[in-house]
Amino acid sequence: MHALPQQPSASIRLSDYRAPAWRVETVELDFDLGIDASEVTAGLLLRRDPAQDAPLRLDGENLQLLSIRLDGRQLPATAYRYAGNVLEVDGARDGSVLETRVRLRPAANTALEGLYLSGSREAGFLLTQCEAEGFRHITFFPDRPDVLSSYTVTLRADRARFPVLLAGGNPDGAGELEGGRHWARFIDPHPKPSYLFALVAGRLEKIERDYVTADGRAVQLKIWAEADAIDRCHYAMDALERSMRWDEQAYGCNYDLDVFHVVATHDFNMGAMENKGLNIFNAKCLLAEPDSTTDDEYRHVEAVVAHEYFHNWSGNRVTCRDWFQLSLKEGLTVFREQSFSADMNSAPLKRIEDVALLRRAQFPEDAGPLAHPVRPAQYSEINNFYTATVYEKGAELVRMLAGALGRDGFRRGMDRYFARNDGRAATIEDFLAALGEANRTDLTPYLAWYGQAGTPRLKAHGHYDAARHEYTLTLAQHMPGNHGTEARPPLPIPVKLALFTPHGDMLPLHLDGQTSKTGNELVVVLAQAEQNFVFTNVATAPVPSLLRGFSAPVILECDYTPDELALLLAHDVDGFNRWEAGQQLAARAYEDLRDGTAAIALQAWCDALAKLFDNAAIDDALLADLLTPPGEVELAERESAIDPQRIHSLRQTLQQRLAERLGALALRQRYAALVAHTTIELDAISQARRRLKRRVLELLALLDHDGACELAAGQYRDAPGMTDRLAALAVLVRNDAAQVGAALHDYRERHADNALALDKWFAVQAQLPGEPALDRVRALEHDAAFTLKNPNRVQSLLGAFVRNNPSGFHRLDGAGYRLLAERLVALDALNPQVAARLATAFNGWQRLEPQRREAARAAIVELAGHRGLSRNLAEIIGSVLN
Ligand code: PHE
Ligand code: ZN
Fold first, then answer.
1. Candidates 194, 196, 273: which one to mutate for ligand 1, based on the most atoms within 8 Å of Cβ?
2. Which of 114, 577, 722, 787 has the fewest other C-beta atoms within 10 Å?
3. Are 766 and 773 in contact (CB under 8 A)?
4. 149-158/22-32 β-pairing
5. Span 621-657, pLDDT tens digits
């Protein structure tokens, strides 16, 4: 009955890349800005590639063409054609100037791509979003990242309605016009691709700071926001200054314009955007103040501010040749941000957080039908490739390269990369070549990592020869499942390792035949399908600590006993690997419960954590993480016929066993001790206490429901800031506490005027576990504050439900799937990018148990049969069904 989904054509291929036939040397843009209609005049100085003989073709979408002139002459209708989002113009020569004038409709732009309105018609402001292909929604242009041009931008608008006019580059004059209008001009001295163009116009307030770069440039830093938000920008300003200093010190990268603008908007499809000289942020990644921002969000703001700033070199000065190279800027910039955040905060906690994200978001992506290489070979809609694979796995690849070269070697390589590619549009090959040549080493074997999808498995097996005092570690790699059966070259897999005695001490390492490789910890690189590494002078049978710091993005398969994992959990000095041992042990404990087998791992896990719980030397935040078993999504990755509701209840039981082992009394005492230290400070120790306090309360609730809810209600009432308040609210919601109605009501009133705080009110309820979640979501959809037009609000309710609440979303009756499918149709008509991203929640449906699988399939097939789905959504749905 249902039409078969059309397989969206994978129309664009890396192998088809051709250099542009026409370039644009300079662009003069003139904007007459208005909410309903804006007019854009563009003057392009054209350069023709003499080696190519192609007509002039410019991209343009939804543009109302008002006039077109070539070299000063109005073109007759026969001299150009505008069809299929391409404008073809006859008669252009090298050095010609093409001038077009078009009309746009910002207020009608709900896709938030191109020029659009943020907020209300009366009070909102205008802004642009061009990455990846938004510039073609603003004017006719060769809208591809390998066309670099110098921009001169003039903005004109009514002064009362648009008092602030901003564009990227340095300011070059401003003044009055007739009729209450005014103008401002900006010149960007650095040639850039069109995706980095931006403008902002409206009523905005600012905070300012003067900054002098290491190489002596005076820069004005300005952060802009609407009046009710400007007081929440100070933390971002501090983070920006820290980022700028860090990039000077760590990479020798200095800022290169006289002003740096940052703008906050509540209407944004992504986290933030690195437009040259004019970064634009989703408010949730910029605004911060204790009363409405959690500790995790503070760190996120710092990270995103840094990320966007770091793009000024890794992305803007050196950009991407084409969108297949997206990870060249994104993987590298995520890695740079991770290093920065590790330096500013706790390095092991940052690593745990990043690896947990990789496992939660990237591993499932890489294991299902949406899997793609870090450098994809083809796509239909580029906006669907801003993925965990391109970002997070891409960052892991850079981390491996950095590890292979060492600190100084990597810096040398990066210096070479920036110097050689400055002002160019580069490729992954350029990156590997620069790093390799600066270190006289060949990194091309790592290119294979960029070209294949799937998470490799690393098998490790150790053998101790007591007579010869030798320990042989056998490492082998393989790629499981359906990622092609053709023979693949082995990947280079760096394995950082140490060996522990049964007492938890590290053994000195002597790697046979490699005299240079000694110490307590070293890196071996598995370069073949299988390899033996022999360690000599090993006094006792060791326990290996492998992949320390998560030295490669693989799944480790090692036949540890529960006792060995418990030993590492107790003694490993690598904070990440200590946590990792605990995660592995917890997963085994989970399997004990699931399979009803002897609870050896469960016992070992609980015993080890009980000891750590009483160990005053351990950091509170690390302890909180150690007390948290792998999440439901991660546990599901280990199953073949997934029943998310069963996983949820088994995981609850697992935590209950842990809570029983720790004991209600000890939990209560610990909670009380932490409450006694409650502050609103943001330092690491205060944050760590809040984190542990939350975890202890969650565990206590599994033993003493009413008592814990009582404490949570008190914590809610007395919370000095959002971290404690939201944690308490979450405990009340998830435990269906008697006090929850009053708390939700209070929160709603207290934060009624704060959209970001309200988002959390929606999200916490969308994560109500199990059957009741769906009705709650439906009810919240009728809340006056809910709208499909705001991406953050969609994310906070629907996103939190379908992505962060497996036991609520995956109902046996399939109602969760049908709800998602219905909302996707409505959302797609407004905002295809956001719809497509939400639709990835269907990923993995093939591995559900049969009844849910069938229900999910039916919902997806029905959705796929809808007429007029966007290319964005159609591509995701088509791939997911495969
Ligand atoms: N380039 C942005 C970043 O990662 C992300 C982004 C992509 C924003 C596309 C908007 C649109 O920093
Ligand atoms: Zn980025």
1. 273
2. 787
3. yes
4. parallel
5. 999 999 999 999 999 998 989 999 999 999 999 999 9
pLDDT above 90 covers a percentage of the chain that reads: 96
Pairing of strands 509-510, 378-379: unpaired
Q: What is the 3-state secondary structure (H, E, C) of 712-729?
A: HHHHHHHCCCHHHHHHHH
Give the H/E segment covering residue 57: strand 56-59
Q: Of 86, 94, 92, 87, which Cα lies nearest the Cα of 72? A: 92
Q: What is the pLDDT of residues 659-714, one digit of tens each?
A: 999 999 999 999 999 999 999 999 999 999 999 999 999 999 999 999 999 999 99
pLDDT in tens, 364-380: 999 999 999 999 999 99
φ/ψ (deg, to 5) at 470: -120, 140
ipTM, interface predicted TM-score of the complex = 0.99
Sign for the CA dihedral angle at 532, 534, 540, 544 comes to negative
C-alpha to C-alpha distance for 383 and 484, rounded to whole angstroms: 25
Max Cα distance, the chain (Å): 95
d(CA 807, CA 543): 37
- C-alpha pair distances (Å), 409 with each of 68, 214, 252, 395: 53, 22, 14, 18
What pLDDT score was predicted for residue 3?
40
Bridge partner list, 282: 265
Cα–Cα dist 698/721, whole Å: 19
Give dist(CA 199, CA 571) in Å, integer: 54
DSSP code, position 452: -
Ligand 1 atom at minimal distance to the Cα of residue 383 = 9
What phi and psi, each to the nearest 5 degrees, are found at residue 230? -65, -30
Query: DSSP secondary-structure letter at 558?
Result: E
Amino acid sitting at position 387: T
- In tens, the pLDDT along 741-770 reads 999 999 999 999 999 999 999 999 999 999
Flag whether pLDDT at 561 surpasses 80: yes
> How many CA atoms does the CB half-sphere of 459 hold within 13 Å?
12
- At residue 391, φ and ψ (nearest 5 deg) are -80, -65
- Is residue 217 within 8 A of residue 254, CB to CB? The reply is yes
Q: What is the pLDDT of residues 61-98, one digit of tens each?
A: 999 999 999 999 999 999 999 999 999 999 999 999 99
User: What is the pLDDT averaged over residues 485-497?
Assistant: 86
Residues 6+ apart with CB under 8 A from 304: 271, 272, 281, 285, 286
Give 249's contacts (C-beta < 8 A, 6+ positions apart). Answer: 214
Confidence of residue 518 (pLDDT cuts 50, 70, 90): low
Q: Is 353 a catalytic residue?
A: no
Residue 756 DSSP SS3: helix
Please give all residues whose beta carbon lies within 6 A of any atom in ligand 1, as ranges: 129, 131-132, 270, 272-274, 307-308, 311, 330, 386
Which token pair is 107?
Answer: 């207020």
- CA neighbor of 445 nearest in space, from 458, 432, 427: 432
> Could you give the CA distance from residue 250 to residue 239 in angstroms, rounded to a whole number?
16
Cβ neighbors of 239 (< 8 A, separation 6 or more) are 301, 302, 305, 306
Ligand closest to 132 (CA) is 1
Query: Residue 315 above 70 pLDDT?
Result: yes
Which of 113, 133, 243, 274 has the most ligand 1 atoms within 8 A of CB, as the residue to mutate?
274
How far is CA 269 from each of CA 288, 433, 628, rounded to the nearest angstrom?
20, 34, 31
* Tens-digit pLDDT profile for residues 816-875: 999 999 999 999 999 999 999 999 999 999 999 999 999 999 999 999 999 999 999 999
Helix, strand, coil shares of the chain as percentages rounded to 5? 45, 20, 35
CB 200 within 8 A of CB 127: yes
- DSSP letter (8 states) at residue 141: B
Is residue 488 scored above 90 in pLDDT? no
Residue of 308, 381, 396, 632 marked catalytic: 308
Q: What is the pLDDT of residue 769?
A: 97
